[in-house]
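user:
I keep going back and forth on a fold encoding question. Separate attempts, laid side by side, tell us more than any discussion would. Would you put together a sequence-and-structure record for a protein of your own picking? Write it directly below this note and I will take it from there.

assistant:
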Amino acid sequence: MYWEKEIETMDRAELSKLQAARLGETLERARKSPHYKRCFEEMGLEIGRIRTVADVERLPLTTKEDLRENWPYGFLACSRDELIRMHSSSGTTGRATVVFHTASDIEAWANLVARSMYMTGIRRSDVFQNMMTYGLFTGGLGFHYGAEKIGALVIPAGAGNSKRQIQLMRDFETTAIHIIPSYALHLSSVFAEVGVDPRRDTKLRTAFIGAEPHSEKMRRKIEELYGFRAFNSYGISEMNGPGVAFECPEQKGMHIWEDNFIVEIIDPVTLKPVPEGEEGELVMTTLLREGMPVLRYRTKDLTRIIPGPCPCGRTHRRIDRIKGRTDDMMILKGVNIFPIQIEKKLMEIPGVGTNFVIILDRVEYNDSMTVKVEVQKEFFGGNLGQLEALRRRIVEELKSDILITPRVDLVEPDSLPKSEGKAKRVIDNRKD
């Protein structure tokens, strides 16, 4: 049940003492980096006065822009000779960010992922098929090393090539997979295409899903399609990658490993902490990172701390599933909308397929939203009245939730572009 019982069930007071001690060590390392050295001097910050976890609020916030501006080595807190690995973000919205690791960093990261996977029931007897990209992206290697540390047989399948993925699952009797939610839905249609039932014709029992926001309805739909338990995970490259927070078998939030991180939830506008249980932006500080410690990193991810203890017995606090990102937010006619809100509603409506796309347009300063929705095959059989009723229901359901009346276009099953990576849910054609 426990990978490291003493740490996972540590008394909260003792855990806070451990965090404070590791925070002091982290600050000593951080001031060796050009960026934080400059920040501490400009703030007149005496790191010796930072003694408790609560004192973390006196430290500077770190943003993705800070990381980009200090490309490539401005956050490095050790000699390059001590580094053995770097990972980088995709850089789709500008210059990429980079994170460096020492050998000790990699070992600590692998241990966190192993702890997380073991918590869900992964053991040496498992066959783990890793269906994530290997390379600069952290997801592939993070889970790979975690599974190997447990002793499971790892199949480094990588992303894509769906028919080969299915063959590997069947030939090697895969029991656990790591997969992006949108790709899991796409893969289910490939299973149907080749005449294989994942519930009957595979040994799958566990999946780890993450990398993109998804609703509880989508998780349950994936579980229903495959007949396994799908566990939510959370990780970002700046905090290692996978293994930052993970669901236990209770599936009532993700335990964030507080022996490795200090977690805050702040108001993204005022930058002040919000009361426990209220939603805000997740801010995190590394506690064991040697090569590149990061202080009070603004993740842009919106979540909350779930109050109270978890029935599983672990004392590390839980965060709720990620609602969305502050930079994923769409503003339409003065209303803030997140793609996951639309997804959640669509997944509740019978007849809706597995794929959708949101298109934003602007004509003569008037913004509009069109939602293209795939329909299940049995609903797309020529009954126009049935289709129109479904379309009207989708419009009304979305209007009641997002307070905007979108245009809804129903399209044939499998007609929208499929992605074997993160799903591109929003196409914004508006020009400033």
Q: What stands out?
A: The longest helix spans residues 12-30. The chain has twelve helices and 21 strands. The chain has two domains: 1-326, 330-428.
